[in-house]
Amino acid sequence: MPRGPGIVQRKILLLLLGGLALGFSGSPSRYFRILKMIGKEWRAIDRAALQRSIQALYRTKLIRAMHHSDGSSTVVLSEKGRERALTYRLEEMRIPVPVAWDKKWRLVLFDIPQKRSRTRDAFRAHLKQIGFLELQKSAFVCPYPCRDEIEFLIELHDIRRHVRFITADAIDIDIHLKEKFGLKT
Hints:
The chain is of the alpha+beta class and 185 residues long. The protein has 2 domains: 7-91, Arc Repressor Mutant, subunit A; 105-181, Alpha-Beta Plaits (2-Layer Sandwich), CATH 3.30.70.240. The chain has 7 helices and 6 strands; from the N terminus they run αααββαβαββαβα.
């Protein structure tokens, strides 16, 4: 069975993906949060391990070099590397639980066509993995802010036209949901 990249290689892929995220970040606060995370992780990597890992990533075609006319080079994720980094990001993704609940419910409703049933099943599994509770087969709820996580999943699965994200003040079964999520009533 082939082994996946080691921890340093995995960090490199995630850091490169973080650079990609900078390009897509729409708000200054997100931009600086991503930069802070990248800088901290980059400093924590052992330089010798970094060199070995970069060579291994080249060999496995997860990264590639772009050579510029001034003689410099830039390391970028290949499509295969981007997919691997997104998989790692997804494995680690959880909705952060705030100190105080804002008393709002986040609902994700979707109607993904039957011909994309594998995508629908994967999206459903990812919602559960990150902390959503299934209300119905295509309706999920969470009490915590999670727009960024949902946007990531929507883009990952390419299902924007099939998904609705709603923030609500009340749900008729909120007592039951508060109990499930361990919220104080």
